[in-house]
Design a protein that fits this description.
- By secondary structure, the protein is of the alpha/beta class.
- It has a domain at about 100-180.
- It contains 15 helices and twelve strands.
- The strands form two sheets. The protein has an eight-stranded mixed beta sheet with strand order 6-7-8-3-9-10-12-11, sandwiched between helices.
- A hairpin with a 2-residue loop joins strand 11 and strand 12.
- Helix 7 crosses helix 8.
- The longest helix has about 45 residues, at about 135-180.
Length: about 400
């Protein structure tokens, strides 16, 4: 007997492409489990993050060390298998997690069984009341039979609901599994990443040429002459000499190594580039060179960039929109000008107050703002959510804080 596998197609959302959205992230969660058994614990590195990046845009992600910026970038490019949520690139779902769907099955079963227990107790109470009230045995038997039928139907409906939820979520999990296993490699090659550390991200035992053309080998391009020419072109594009291709990473400075990392990403001719703090390990003078290089490449190649950093002054210059992250969540999202003009969330204000100024007189008077969540917020009655205060400006807040922020904007 021949078994035919069920035909599926990768999830595609054409409305994203129609709205010029290059990358769409929905309810992204990235959890890491440590330990085993009773000693195991889960770290929620990224928790329920959603945003869209439009084609040709430079989208900045800022926040202190450990807030989940790098984890978000690595999750988008599939270096991590995400826990929950979905990531769409050029309309196609390239990554998805099934934790939420598994929890939906689990909680529907737990809630359903709890409800069944309550109904059984309620049923027993009604039968007991009938025994006390009705003396006629024949009438009592009929009334008890009615009660039993009534509760049997209610219990059957709950069990059917549990089965329906399980079937529905299992189908979604099957689609998620299919999507993640059948991602087009050519599509994924259009998404590249520049890593944070220019030293550790380059293999010291490989020449610059081997490092840069490694991606071409993965994609099945083995023509030596063509690959060598592409490497030289990529080196020239990032401001390095073609002769450097035969050297090793240790022979270069930090800025040159970062340029090699950029060349490695550009040789794949990407449309979307994730820059993970590409200037944090560099000197101030070299930082300006790398930023200007990225700016020129963005215009020349029509790149869409996600720029991860914790230096707001750099992000303001380079990015169109900025998302501020704190403890794995986006707390504020707005255009660069709007964020610096009207910072609403206390954490954003704290980050802005930490930017040093190259003037000793104003620097003496600069007041640093310390963000303390327990003092700033009271979420005991109502939990916060990411709300659009004004068009394009989102803030993590509850109803009370939303009213306060709107008043502040009216004053300005």
């Amino acid at each position: 007997m021949r078994i035919f596998k069920e035909k599926r197609s990768v999830t595609y959302r054409p409305e994203l492409v129609e709205n010029n959205i290059e990358l769409s992230v929905r309810h992204l969660k990235q959890f890491f489990k440590f330990g085993h058994g009773k000693n195991a614990f889960i770290t929620k590195a990224v928790h329920d993050v959603s945003f869209d990046i439009k084609k040709g845009e430079c989208f900045g992600v800022v926040g202190e060390s450990g807030c989940g910026k790098t984890t978000t970038g690595r999750s988008l490019i599939r270096l991590y298998n995400i826990t929950s949520g979905s990531v769409y690139f050029k309309g196609y779902r390239i990554s998805a997690g099934k934790r939420w769907n598994e929890k939906e099955i689990k909680w529907s079963r737990i809630k359903g069984n709890r409800k069944i227990k309550e109904l059984k107790v309620e049923q027993a109470d009604r039968i007991k009341a009938l025994n006390d009230e009705v003396s006629d045995q024949a009438l009592l038997a009929r009334e008890i039979e009615k009660v039993n039928k009534e509760y049997a139907k209610k219990i059957a409906d709950i069990k059917k609901h549990i089965a329906d939820v399980k079937k529905e979520q299992k189908e979604i999990i099957k689609q998620i599994t299919y999507d993640t296993r059948h991602v087009d490699k050519k599509l994924m090659s259009k998404m590249q990443m520049i890593f944070q550390d220019p030293v550790d991200s380059l293999d010291p035992r490989m020449t610059v040429e081997d490092i840069i053309q490694e991606g071409l080998h993965i994609q099945g391009h083995y023509n030596r002459f063509e690959n060598s020419q592409k490497v030289k072109d990529a080196l020239v594009k990032v401001g390095l000499l073609p002769e450097y291709s035969s050297r090793y990473p240790h022979e270069f400075s930090g800025g040159q190594r970062q340029r090699i990392g950029i060349a490695r990403a550009l040789i794949m001719n990407p449309d979307f580039l994730i820059c993970d703090e590409p200037i944090s390990a560099l000197d101030v003078s070299i930082r300006a060179q790398i930023i200007n290089l990225l700016n020129n490449l963005k215009e020349e190649m029509g790149l869409t960039i996600m720029f991860i950093a914790h230096d707001l002054s750099v992000v303001k210059y380079f990015c169109d929109r900025i998302a501020v992250m704190y403890f794995g969540k986006i707390v504020e999202l707005a255009t660069s000008d709007e964020l610096f003009k009207h910072p609403l969330h206390p954490y954003t204000r704290a980050l802005l107050s930490a930017i040093p100024k190259p003037d000793p007189y104003t620097e003496k008077k600069r007041q640093r703002y310390v963000y303390n969540p327990s003092q700033e917020h009271d979420y005991s009655k109502e939990a916060p959510s990411l709300v659009e205060i004004v068009p394009g400006h989102f803030v993590m807040a509850n109803s009370e804080e939303i009213a306060k922020y709107k008043k502040e904007l009216k004053k300005d």
